[in-house]
Amino acid sequence: METSVEKIEKYPKHKSSTQEALGRLVKNKTAMLGFFVLVIMVLSCLFANVICPQGYDAQSITERFTAPGKLPGLQYIFGTDNLGRSMLARILYGGRYSILIGIGAATVGMVGGVLLGLIAAYYGGRVDNIVMRILDVFNAIPSLLMAIVVSSLFGGTVFNCIMAVGIAAIPANARTARGPALAIMNQDYIEAAKSIDASNFRIMLRHVLPNISSVLIVRYAMGIGFAILTTSGLSFLGLGVKPPTPEWGAMLSGARQYMAQSPYLIIIPGLAIALIVLATNLFGDGLRDALDPKLKY
């Protein structure tokens, strides 16, 4: 005869919400595909000095406009540009700047947006109206146009690109944070925290923010791809990172005049941008599905 302990052990162990979400994410094949592509691209860029030890600025005039696969060696697998520089090296080193700017801009936009969204939702009333009407004005301006304005005012350095793209993303992120925050402001645990005289900052940070974190995580993951795409657009217009720094958008801009004779100079950076944005969106979609409580059962 089975004891009560043996009967209990037959039942599956309870999993936390984080474990359940992680399990659903792992089972999502498209999300995992996007995740592995991101990992491979990030690691390749981080170890660019190992893969291409000659650097991104080593020139060989005799090997200008060499098509992919025409020269021996891994560093020339993507051919050379108009100055005989390795396209693979420039893609990998340029990916460092593009990914850095993408992560930095997404972080700036998320921090600023969450701060404004929480303030508007927590205080409500006049504060909510003032904050949201100001954000409506900025939200009426296309994000790329706003990034162009900010970048034109402060110049095209890596830091300025991060700030330009990040500031442009604040209005949308503020709305993303405000909506879920409003839905939980009347919950019992919020009232309990107020009743013991917890500070407004503590309530927003310890009680409101964790309960809307799933929405913000998804927004942040997908915002990285959008920031990379926007940064590439700025560099293509000459307002982003300046040559000879190898940034993907700047590489596209510099290769325009050679696209007829050497189309791979346009195709390779364009594919790199498209691939990382697609991988980010696939992973972000899978993360959204995994964190959605409606899909739990």
Mean pLDDT: 85
Morphology:
elongated
The total tally of domains equals: 1
Query: What's the CATH H-level superfamily name?
Result: MetI-like
Low-confidence stretches: none
In the CATH hierarchy, the third-tier topology is known as MetI-like fold
Approximately how much beta-strand content do the residues carry? Answer: under 5%
The topology string of helices and strands comes to: HHHHHHHHHHHHH
Which CATH top level class fits?
A: Mainly Alpha
Q: What separation lies between the terminal Cα atoms?
A: 34 Å
Main beta-sheet annotation:
none
Number of helices: 13
> What integer value in Å does the Rg equal?
24 Å
Helical fraction: 55-70%
CATH architecture: Orthogonal Bundle
Say how many strands there are: 0
- Structural class, judged by helices and strands? mainly alpha
Task: Walk me through what this model shows.
The chain has 297 residues and is an all-alpha fold. It has a single domain (31-295), classed as Orthogonal Bundle (MetI-like fold). The protein has 13 helices and no strands. The chain is elongated. The relative contact order is 0.15.
Please sum up the structure shown.
With 297 residues, this protein is an all-alpha fold. It contains 13 helices and no strands. The radius of gyration is 24 Å and the shape is elongated.
